[in-house]
């Protein structure tokens, strides 16, 4: 169904409706300016299928956006049992009615004609239709055989940042509790493992300190490797409205590309990819050298100042300028913005998390706010951003490998607490070493120790680095691959069993955005065919496997979304991510920020308002790691260094990226996103407006480099790294010299080679199998590459 390309709805309801704009051409829409400390005005964005008006809609069902981490409150329009449109919620604390361009159109993917509707099993090499009984029978039989022959370590689960809280909690209980495997991780490893790691290193625990309302108060907003304009466009609308109002904030942008954020910035630093730690050390150097430090705050609430000051003393702007390829004056200007700010909000995302020394760099941003004493007050804080809509829940529930409820796997008391909650023997919950991270899970599959891998709501055959290797790992005969998805993805093409999943809008559950706002997403329509909610699939698996607790009762003990949520509330009670004051009923009224307890029913806008942290040795989620090697600290070390649970200022030397440009591969290659596409395009590629807005891949090249390599706008080029070759159209400009940018959205499902066996399109053909030593997040933004005109490339 093709929908009309403009905004919808012209009736006045007492708020701005930003009618009839071309949302593709103007994704951020009209400005509603406001000043510091004022309330962000409401503007409601909506879109209905061609020919429909609001009177035609049968029901509006509350949910929130799922094509980024912003958590914009919205409603699904339902007519005749189908989703026919969306409307932003004027009363939602996150978006005040606005919607991202992908959310205005992307719901059409639910209605796509090529949804998976029945299970598929591989027979004679081909995927063929099967019943649920047959498909689940195969999964259960293989699980039981592997458990008997090899034990729990033969089974692994690789999940997502796009399911619901109840689903992750259930998967964590099954994997860590019922089965007892350590091999459970999410694609959050590729996404916000570094956010979690950086928060743990500094504050002893995951959990976002700041709130989106800090945008309303800040006088300086600094964005580190974060193209918020394209990746959280509603948050950018909020920033743009501050910029258009009285006393606008100053913006600092740190990004090698000329993004919309860079163009709006007061100061734009475009460092060479992979040099973030050197740059941050230079900024910290200046802040300390100019005495912009809040020494009272530092003395009372932190440990580690002397070591940090000593280390960054060696990073004067001239030295940093040399490493990063940025003028020393720009570094001084940027430092002055940070140093003189009265209300400083910093945000961090993939330009740091997926680049060299990811955690070390992200931690230095926390250090800026700590040194300046700018935390827990209106306009002051850090957003170590999430990317995916429900990544926060993956982490909280422990489906990223961590222990449920931000518990500490290295603290026996925490493991015992979880075992009691689940009524299982503590020894059954693996905690002999840190949880297996995704890159290691794939390594175990590669070398044959892992024999069954259950992939849910993620598409590793496009999204993991070094795809030729990933395809060969996933297509091995000895690996039993289960893929649970709504579409026949590149990964599904390689599976032994494919399980058809219901999506957002077709099932009920809660999820939590990047500023801890929990939203309820109610079921609006039936899933297509025999597709089932992921929750139901896992509970069905648990029953078929006959998992039992210590008393012989079925485990997990819950049976549907709401009972899973009630169980999760008990698991979260007393932990930083406390949901005990929430209920489905309450969430139907709108989003609430955790922690939310019976004593604090309104939720919590900012963490750490009293300068107290979740970092006490008995309470913290992690004992920390060495920022250079990633080696975990011993509990005693942590206790000695931070007995009172203060915030930790951790310093790190700059280390050169593992792969740097050379004569053969003279460019630094980075990868990322465009506003119109989401990830591997399973949804946005099936949405006509979005598909057509960015139909094919491209490579960004600076003007100087284009001239040097004789490349012209629009021609087909070949980008090469030691891992492979990709062909993409040249786009000149928008990037610093010496750097190439490729979007990573374009895989193979819509080509004639759906598994991508001869792949030359996906950016990850080119990326390296390499990760940050602390967070284990793959480095999608550090590789060396060459570019040349493709033979016979027509313009
Ligand atoms: N439109 C859209 N929005 C999305 C998504 C999507 O697929 N499409 N995905 C969501 C998800 S899961 C995520 S994780 C977020 C990601 O959101 P972002 O992190 O904002 O997006 P990216 O494009 O991956 O990377 C951000 C920027 O990092 C810069 N960069 C690259 N290397 C370096 C470096 O070494 N140093 C610095 N300082 N910067 C560097 C790039 O030029 C790029 O502009 O977006 C979310 N929102
Ligand atoms: N080169 C490069 N690679 C990258 C990145 C980069 O910047 N550069 N970014 C990385 C990041 S930050 C991320 S988050 C990953 C994203 O990578 P992926 O997670 O692989 O990307 P998606 O396309 O979002 O895959 C999600 C899958 O879940 C399915 N799905 C959606 N809803 C449901 C549901 O309710 N149930 C089930 N079972 N399935 C569902 C979708 O159809 C889709 O196939 O990519 C990473 N890879
Ligand atoms: Mo992500």
UniProtKB/TrEMBL annotation:
Pfam families in alphabetical order: Molybdopterin, Molydop_binding
Entry GO MF terms: 4 iron, 4 sulfur cluster binding; metal ion binding; molybdopterin cofactor binding; oxidoreductase activity
Look up the record and name the cofactor or cofactors this protein needs. Mo-bis(molybdopterin guanine dinucleotide); [4Fe-4S] cluster
Q: Which keywords, in A-to-Z order, does the entry hold? A: 4Fe-4S, Iron, Iron-sulfur, Metal-binding, Molybdenum, Nitrate assimilation, Oxidoreductase
Q: Give the matching InterPro entries.
A: Asp_de-COase-like_dom_sf (IPR009010), CT_Nitrate-R-NapA-like (IPR041957), MoPterin_dinucl-bd_dom (IPR006657), Mopterin_OxRdtase (IPR006656), Mopterin_OxRdtase_4Fe-4S_dom (IPR006963), Prok_molybdopt-oxidoreductase (IPR050123)
Q: Where does the record place the 4Fe-4S Mo/W bis-MGD-type domain?
A: 58-114
Which GO annotations describe the biological process of this protein?
Answer: nitrate assimilation
Please give the family membership noted in the entry.
Belongs to the prokaryotic molybdopterin-containing oxidoreductase family. NasA/NapA/NarB subfamily.
PANTHER family attached to this UniProt entry: NADH-QUINONE OXIDOREDUCTASE SUBUNIT G (PTHR43105:SF10), RESPIRATORY NITRATE REDUCTASE (PTHR43105)
Please state what the protein is called: Molydopterin dinucleotide binding domain-containing protein
């Amino acid at each position: 169904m093709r929908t009309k390309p403009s905004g919808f709805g012209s009736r006045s309801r007492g708020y701005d409706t930003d009618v009839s704009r071309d949302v593709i051409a103007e994704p951020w829409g009209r400005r509603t300016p406001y000043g510091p400390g004022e309330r962000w005005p409401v503007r409601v964005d909506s879109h209905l299928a061609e020919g429909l008006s609001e009177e035609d809609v049968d029901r509006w069902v509350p949910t929130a956006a799922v094509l980024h981490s912003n958590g914009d409150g919205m409603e699904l329009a339902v007519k005749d049992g189908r989703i026919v449109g969306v409307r932003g919620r004027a009363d939602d604390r996150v978006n005040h009615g606005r919607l991202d361009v992908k959310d205005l159109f992307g719901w059409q993917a639910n209605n796509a004609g090529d949804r998976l509707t029945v299970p598929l099993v591989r027979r004679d090499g081909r995927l063929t239709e099967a019943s649920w009984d047959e498909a689940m029978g195969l999964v259960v039989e293989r699980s039981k055989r592997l458990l008997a022959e090899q034990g729990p370590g033969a089974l692994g689960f690789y999940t997502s940042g796009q399911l619901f809280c109840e689903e992750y909690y259930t998967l964590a209980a099954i994997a860590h509790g019922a089965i007892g495997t350590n091999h459970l991780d999410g694609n959050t490893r590729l996404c916000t493992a570094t956010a979690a790691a950086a928060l743990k290193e500094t504050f002893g625990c995951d959990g976002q300190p700041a709130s989106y309302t800090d945008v309303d108060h800040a006088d300086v907003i600094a964005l580190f490797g974060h193209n918020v304009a394209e990746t959280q466009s509603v948050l950018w609308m909020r920033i743009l409205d501050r910029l258009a109002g009285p006393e606008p904030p100053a913006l600092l942008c740190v990004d090698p590309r000329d993004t919309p954020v860079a163009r709006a910035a007061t100061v734009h630093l475009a460092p060479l990819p992979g040099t973030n730690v050197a740059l941050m050390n230079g900024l910290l150097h200046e802040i300390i050298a100019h005495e912009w430090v809040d020494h009272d705050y530092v003395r009372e609430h932190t440990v580690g100042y002397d070591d940090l000051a000593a280390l960054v003393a060696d990073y004067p702007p001239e030295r940093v300028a040399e490493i990063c390829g940025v003028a020393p004056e720009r570094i001084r200007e940027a430092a002055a913005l940070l140093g003189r700010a009265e209300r400083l909000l910093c945000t961090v995302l993939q330009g740091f998390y997926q680049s060299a020394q990811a955690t070390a760099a992200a931690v230095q941003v926390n250090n800026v706010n700590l040194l300046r004493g700018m935390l827990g007050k209106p306009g002051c804080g850090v957003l170590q951003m999430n990317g995916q809509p429900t990544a926060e829940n993956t982490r909280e529930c422990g489906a990223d490998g961590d222990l449920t409820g931000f518990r500490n796997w290295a603290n026996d008391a925490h493991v015992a607490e979880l075992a009691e909650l689940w009524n299982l023997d503590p020894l059954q919950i693996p905690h002999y070493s840190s949880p297996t991270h995704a890159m290691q899970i794939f390594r175990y599959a590669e070398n044959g120790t892992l024999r069954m891998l259950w992939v849910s709501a993620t598409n590793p055959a496009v999204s993991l680095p070094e795809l030729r290797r990933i395809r060969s790992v996933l297509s091995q005969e000895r690996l039993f691959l289960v893929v649970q998805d709504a579409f026949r993805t590149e990964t599904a093409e390689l599976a032994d069993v494919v399980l058809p999943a219901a999506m957002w809008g077709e099932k009920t559950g809660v999820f939590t955005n990047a500023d801890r706002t929990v939203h309820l997403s109610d079921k609006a329509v039936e899933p297509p065919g025999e597709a089932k909610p992921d929750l139901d699939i896992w509970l069905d698996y648990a029953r078929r496997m006959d998992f039992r607790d210590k008393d012989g009762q079925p485990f997990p003990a819950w049976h549907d979304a709401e009972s899973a949520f009630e169980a999760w509330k008990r698991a979260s009670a007393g932990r930083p991510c406390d949901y005990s004051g929430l209920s489905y009923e309450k969430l139907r009224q709108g989003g609430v920020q955790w922690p939310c307890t019976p004593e604090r029913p309104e939720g919590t806008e900012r963490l750490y308002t009293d300068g107290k942290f979740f970092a006490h040795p008995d309470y913290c989620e992690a004992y920390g790691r060495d920022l250079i090697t990633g080696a975990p600290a011993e509990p005693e070390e942590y206790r000695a260094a931070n007995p009172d649970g203060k915030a930790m200022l951790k310093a790190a030397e700059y280390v050169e990226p593992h792969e740097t440009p050379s004569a053969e591969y003279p460019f630094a290659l980075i990868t990322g996103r465009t506003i119109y596409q989401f990830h591997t395009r399973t949804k946005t590629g099936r949405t006509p407006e979005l598909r057509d807005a960015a139909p094919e891949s491209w490579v960004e090249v600076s003007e100087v480099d284009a001239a040097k390599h004789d490349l012209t706008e629009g021609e087909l080029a070949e980008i090469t790294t030691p891992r492979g070759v990709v062909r993409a159209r040249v786009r000149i400009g928008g990037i610093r010299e010496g750097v190439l940018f490729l979007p990573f959205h374009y895989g193979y499902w819509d080509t004639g080679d759906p598994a991508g066996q001869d792949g030359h399109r996906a950016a990850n053909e080119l990326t390296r199998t390499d990760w940050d030593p602390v967070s284990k997040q793959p480095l999608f933004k550090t590789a060396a590459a060459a570019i040349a005109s493709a033979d016979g490339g027509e313009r």
